[in-house]
Amino acid sequence: MTKPDTDLIIAGGGLAGATLALAVARMVPSLRVTVVEAFPLSPDALPESYQPSYDARSTALAWGSRLIFEELGLWRRLAEHATPIHHIHVSDRGHFGVTRLHASEHGQEALGYVADNRWMGLCLMRELLETGVQWQAPAEVTDMTPIPDGVRVELTTGDNGTREMTAHCLVVADGGRSGLREKLGFQPSHHSYGQNALIANVSTSDSHGFSAFERFTDAGPMALLPHGSPARAGHQSALVWTLTDKALAEVLELSDDDKCRRLQERFGWRLGRFTRIGTCHHYPLTLTTVDEPVRPGVALVGNAAHALHPVAGQGFNLALRGLMTLVEQFRLATEQGKSIGDLDVLRRYQSLHRRDWQQTVRFSDSLVRLFGQSMPPIIAARDAGLVGLDLLPGAKRWFASKAMGLGGRRAVIGRPGKLDREVTRNE
Fold first, then answer.
1. Which CATH number goes with the domain that contains 310?
2. Residue 162 lies in a domain
3. What is the pTM of this model?
4. How far is CA 368 from CA 176, 218, 283, 397, in A?
């Protein structure tokens, strides 16, 4: 084809899409990038105007994700409102199994961090303003047609108009709910866990002490992650509470005080009394995977390619490693004079990322299944396993590497760096 309108179109300007755009701009600056986002951009939405909200939604960032953001020049700004996780406490409610991880035991500042989604989005936007990335917003990708050496993409704009753009490659980064993935002919596999995640911020009478708690109960796992000030251990935590449909409906009908009492019954008293719960959000829990997430000129990333159970907080960190793997293939293709939408290029990305997502899916899915069993022999075996993790240095290092997101890519953007050294040190 003649010279396309742009080299890369990214459908979706959320955390995954914006991170991909920044990574390409930083690491493959010769590529022209256009981000298509359904929501209008606010010109004054910059980090300097950010005011943390009690009800802010947040994401768990593994240590490996911090290293990637450092490579992208974003971490110093992100760290201003990223709460560190110094300790992780994993327990089986009503049983003896416990495992504890401490950052100091692994020579790290933290095992991970908790950052507000809006804060991360603002930081990404500020960095992107300093690049040549172009935006189409509000607009949506509604269709795509393969053409020689690329794709023709149809956009619906905010005024209900339509336009077309050509590019070498389209990356779908708008999550798993937009319908674009299915419209383009990708076939996802879904496995429902028959559970829902209730998300809210909570306050407790005792300080979290920068500790994260993963608590497995007979009704499903629940997690409390330290939230708030990055410098002072406060009393606010981010809650992920797994509930059946019936239990979710019951909890949503309760007053805030009764929600706290119900949560107290399920979690216990390790953080003292639950004194406040914020706005509750919820969504059904489904394991979604796409076996073939690439086609000539098209690649799926993030939740469009795989959506996991939130146990162990692996989802966004897996997506981030996949984005960096894709950018590395774009860089190599550009150096070799190949189109970034060439099927061999995209299949190489798929092959490299597949092992990581398969291992991560197995890790999170096996935790859900193992701790969902109520047979006494299985309970005894899993609790012995938790104790073993706590006592055996080799097993503990393996578990810590999973928690810190160091079990995937060995290097960032094709050259030895911090992530490479950290993975090697923790193997």
1. 3.50.50.60
2. yes
3. 0.86
4. 21, 11, 17, 21
Total domains, the chain = 1
* 23 within some domain: yes
What pLDDT tens digit does each residue of the chain (427 aa) get?
A: 578 999 999 999 999 999 999 999 999 999 999 999 988 876 555 666 678 889 999 999 989 899 999 999 999 999 999 999 999 888 765 444 567 788 888 788 998 999 999 999 999 988 998 899 999 999 999 999 999 989 999 999 877 789 999 999 999 999 877 789 999 999 898 888 788 989 999 999 999 999 999 887 766 778 899 999 898 999 999 998 989 899 999 999 999 999 999 999 989 899 999 999 999 999 888 888 898 999 999 999 999 998 876 665 678 888 999 999 999 999 999 999 999 999 999 999 999 998 887 777 766 665 555 444 444 434 444 343 433 434 444 444 545 565 556 655 443 444 434 444 443 344 3
Question: What SS3 string covers the chain?
Answer: CCCCCCCEEEECCCHHHHHHHHHHHHHCCCCCEEEECCCCCCCCCCHHHCCCCCCCCEEEEEHHHHHHHHHCCCHHHHHHHEEEECEEEEEECCCCCEEEEEHHHHCCCCCEEEEEHHHHHHHHHHHHCCCCCEEECCEEEEEEEEECCEEEEEEEECCCCEEEEEECEEEECCCCCCCHHHHCCCCCEEEEEEEEEEEEEEEECCCCCCEEEEEEECCEEEEEEEECCCCCCCCEEEEEEEECHHHHHHHHHCCHHHHHHHHHHHHCCCCCCEEEECCCEEEEEEEEECCCCEECCEEECHHHCEECCCHHHCHHHHHHHHHHHHHHHHHHHHHCCCCCCCHHHHHHHHHHHHHHHHHHHHHHHHHHHHHCCCCHHHHHHHHHHHHHHHHCHHHHHHHHHHHCCCCCCCCECCECCHHHHHHHHHC
Residue 328 in domain: yes
The reply to whether 48 falls in a domain is: yes
Place of tokens 């991909």: 20
Structural tokens at position 427: 């193997």
